[in-house]
Every structure is written in structure tokens, then in C-alpha cells.
Design a protein that fits this description.
2 copies of one chain form a homodimer. Chain A has 344 residues and is of the alpha/beta class. In chain A, the strands form 4 sheets. In chain A, strands 3, 5, 6, 9, 10, 18 and 19 form a 7-stranded mixed sheet that branches. Chain A has a 6-stranded parallel sheet with strand order 13-12-11-14-15-17, sandwiched between helices. In chain A, strands 2-1-4 form a 3-stranded antiparallel sheet. Chains A, B: It comes from Catellatospora chokoriensis.
Chain lengths: 344, 344
Amino acid sequence: MRATLIYGAGDVRVEDVPDPVLREPTDALVRVLRSCICGSDLWPYGSRPASEQGDRIGHEFLGVVEDVGADVSGLKKGDVVVAPFVWADNTCDFCREGLQTSCRHGGFWGANGVDGGQGEAVRVPQAQGTLVKLSVGEDSALLPSLLSLSDVFPTGHHCAVTAGVGPGTTVTVIGDGAVGLCAVLAAKRLGAEQIILMGRHQGRTDLGRDFGASDVVAARGDEGVAKVLELTGGDGTHAVLECVGLRPAIETAVAVVRAGGRVSRVGAPQYPEVPFGWDEFRRNITLTGGIAPARAYIEELLPDVLDGSVQPGRVFDSTVGLDGVPGGYQAMADRTALKVLIRP
Amino acid sequence: MRATLIYGAGDVRVEDVPDPVLREPTDALVRVLRSCICGSDLWPYGSRPASEQGDRIGHEFLGVVEDVGADVSGLKKGDVVVAPFVWADNTCDFCREGLQTSCRHGGFWGANGVDGGQGEAVRVPQAQGTLVKLSVGEDSALLPSLLSLSDVFPTGHHCAVTAGVGPGTTVTVIGDGAVGLCAVLAAKRLGAEQIILMGRHQGRTDLGRDFGASDVVAARGDEGVAKVLELTGGDGTHAVLECVGLRPAIETAVAVVRAGGRVSRVGAPQYPEVPFGWDEFRRNITLTGGIAPARAYIEELLPDVLDGSVQPGRVFDSTVGLDGVPGGYQAMADRTALKVLIRP
């Protein structure tokens, strides 16, 4: 089959690889209907050292079950399923607590002999725990929004949930990428009263307004902080959803959060330390979030996707076949595409 | 009257100062029955630049109302009262949310013309919101434990509450100072299942065991981390209560917290940044806590103090008069005293 590999910064190739086969009785084989490129794929695309050996890449996919191992129940050939971006048994103590990203028997796609999602098919370890069956056909118009359950939508939701967003909450979302926009959507869905979106790409912030943003702040740094404070009577917002992962974003986050408030981060941090000294202590600021246990949220979010009351799939503004994947990476790196959908 | 002033590192003096008088109709005058020296007083005692002008110091006291301003209701001459370590109106939006440390009309003792607590009397601003009436006499044997409601006990409680401690929680407490020991007491009171106290002063850790610690780890750094992990099957604890405020303590905290767990800090941070990068992100660690809104917790903790079911006053192992205050600072700095009670 064909699948995507990354060889180094700016060097993504689609190549022939061995067809996946069942290895463990807990495996399933899934033919990929839709995959996509994640903002976090751009970190290695931007900085990975070049190597002779490529690594499989991609961690978001939705597809059709082709075969299941002897220990997999509840799934059969022909089922349409979505996979969260970390595979997990969904039975260990961490999984039962809703932290499938720390599953004792789980792991990442594209690592340790496990396929990446940006290919024609995937061997899914711990398939019974990992995959969620979808009650749609292979040609459903909902596939893009359902695919977003793999990562971006639950990631935005995790950010909002851990930040304590609920009815009456005021929220700042930092970042107008696909995760930031899904964080807006999630905050709105959870009842936030005011949602200030910090972003400077108008096409994206316009979608953010559609998703529920009440205000958009294009300015960054001190000027951006001043704008958010101005919009909140000088206090900042109860919740700040940091959806970027860079140091200036977390600095902005702690500057615009209200005393007693919560900063949640779901952008993979490209920094080792956080400014969190006396001022944050004096103001009782909480810093939370982390890699989203998407699996924990899929059942909760699914009904609203199926009935169309949320449409997170609108973050996809470009669609490519497998051949188009390298160009898709470049388009996202150049910010000419927000998020690229792949139809293998 | 006489009161304590700090002139610089190691230079604490007890001097004659003007008697307090009512200045605002919201003030009360309180004659101090008991005050004490706080671990946080040791920061300026250790490093304050020398100056000609001394500053009033002390933020924990309990006393008798001598006079009240025209706008103060619910308090009268002769009432025994305790003051939280930050004064507040207890009516603004932050106060109503239980964050009296961010009161819009509040402030710190010993600053901006407000008396410190380590003296014979105190003018109490926003007295109606600040002071809590106690149903005991001036000679009650409970005064030390009631005085602890001013700071250390609610601070330990705030640490445990913000860290999410409840029935079944496993907890690590870092630091065997008075706040750390009160954090043990608070965690036990909230139902923690296992409480590991990290400290190396046996007299203190013995009291920690009395307060509810199930394990004591005397080792620090990597060795201490390894011990805690060994005691928790390699996972660390759900909650980590960081009651020190130094960089090595927060480093230990993030190293011994279980995935999905919470680190709360109530030791005033002597560092500007916290190690909080990819590993903490991957494990979904929350960092919380801050300066404790003691006022928010006094009514909740008071009954257990009054009926003797908790005895936080046991952290006082030394009692001095006002003349003994400079020696009390030195004893706490030398760690020959755990916490010094002052009877002016």
C-alpha cells in the first residue's frame, strides 16, 4: 500500500510500504477513508533532522474495518470507525479515569512499528478500546466533521473542559489554527458567555466568529494583552485556551487570565519552562491542559456532530489525495491552507 | 504601643509606634492576644536590603475588638476575633467567588499605612468583611489553633483543596514546615488515602505522622523522587502539595505527580519560572494553588478547631513575648523553632 513518511524538515514523501497485517489478537485492520494533516505534524516538518530512514506519520484517520483479531469484539468487517490520535486499551486505570493518553498498554501512531494515519490502511493495536463505531456510510457528508473527532475537536474540547469553561464563563482563545477554532466551538457549546479569539488571519477568525467568538483581537504581544484587558474591564477572562504551543502564546495567556482563573494549553509546548512566579501565585492562576485524551470525549461529542449542531469539519479548507500530501504540508506551513483533508 | 518592624535581613526590632486609631468608618481596632511568625516572614528576614526606615511586619493575629467605626456592624467591643492574613471587604465579586486575596478593596497587613500583626494592637480596615468572631474567651486553651486560622491551616487547606484532595486521593506533601504539616492535616481531614510527607526534621515529621502522614521520605532530589515513586508503584501521587516555594521543591513536585494529577503550591515562589514542558504536557499535569484566601475557609474549618477534632495549633513549639520576637525570627531561621507564637 501507499503511505506517508517524513525524512526530515520539509521532506515528506508518499511511498510504497508493506500492507498491514494482523499481528496481535487485539489488532484490527482499517482501510482509511479520510485522514488529515495536523498542526503538530508541522513541528517535525519544520525542524526534523534529515535521515536516510523515513518515519511513518499521521495520527488522525477514519475508515472501514477490514479484519479483526480473535480478541476484538464489538467490531466487524465493514464497520465505519474513527480512531483517536492515541491508541489505548480503554480498560486500564488511566483509561477508566478518562486519561487514555496515559494508557498502560497504549501508544502513538507512526511509532514503534505502528502505522501512521496518512496512508491507505492502518493496523490498529488495542482495536476494541481504540476505535469508535460510527453509524454512517462510507460516503457520508459528515465524514470531515467525524474525522475531526480524531483530534482537533476533542483537543479544543479538552482545552475548554480543563479550563473550567461553562455557562457564564469568559474565555480567551489564543490561536486561530484548527485547534483554536475548535476550542472556540467547544467553549460556545459549553455555554461560555464571552469568547475572545486572538488571531490575525481574517479567513480563520471569520470562521471563529461563525463558531461562536464574540470578539476578535488581531494584535499580539503587549498590544494584544491590552486589547483583551480592555474588552474585560481590565480583569482578563476566567479561562484562557492556549492553542499554539509557543512561548509568546503562554506568556500572553498568563497575562490575560483573570485572578483565580485557569490557563489551559493544548498546543504541544515548544518551550521547557513557563513564566509562573510571584504574580501568578498572588493571583491564584491555574495552569492545566495537556495532550487531549480524545478517546474520552468521542461518545460525548458524537451526537452533536451527527445531528449537525456543531460542524467542526469546517476547519478543512483543502482536500488532497495521497499524492497531494507533500503539497498539503507545504500549504499548511505557508498558511495558505488551514487544515488539509486527505482522501487516500 | 509597641510593635515589630523589620529594617533589613536579620534586623527585626520591637519599637514604640503610634497607637492605632480609627481612620475610616469601616475600621476596627483590635488589641492583639496572639500573633506569630510566618515562614514567609523569613524571606525578608533572609534577604531584605537594609534601610533607615523600618517596615511593620506580621500578618497573623487574633485579638479583642476595642472599638469599631460607624459602618461596621456585627462586631462590638469585647468580641474575640481572628483576622485572615489578607484584609478584604468580603463583598466584591472576587470575595464572593472565595478569592478574598484579590479583593477589589483589600490589601496586606504592614503595608500602605496598615499595621502589622506582630504588635500590641492593629487598626483593621474593612473590619466587617475581614474579621471572624470566635465564641471563646480571652484565655481559651484553643487560642493557638484558632490563631492558625489566620494563615497556616487555611493555607494548607487551600493547597489540598486546589490539588483536588478527597476520599481515595494519594498525596505527597513537600516540606515539613508549619504549612506543610497543616497541609498534611488538611489532606487527612479531606479523606486522603495515602499521605507521603517529604521532610527531614524528625521532630516535625513525627508531628506530620500525628497529623495523618502515612509515609515519611527524608531523602531529597532524585533520591527523594525515587522513594516516592517506589511507594506508589512507580506512578506518583494524584496530588502534590508544594509547601516550600523554592525551585528544587517545584521540580520534585512535577517529578512525583501521577499522570493526570495536580501540583498545588502555597509556598511563596522564590523563582520566576516553572519547568513545565513536553513531559508535563504529555502527562496532563495541572499546576495550581497560590496565595490562600484564608477568609474563604475560616467558617468551614472553625467547627473542627472548636471541637478539637483538628489541632493545627500544635505547630507552635515556642512562645515569646514581644521582646522575644527578634529571637523568635532567628530561632525559626535556624530551624530550632518550627513556628513561634507571640503573646504581646
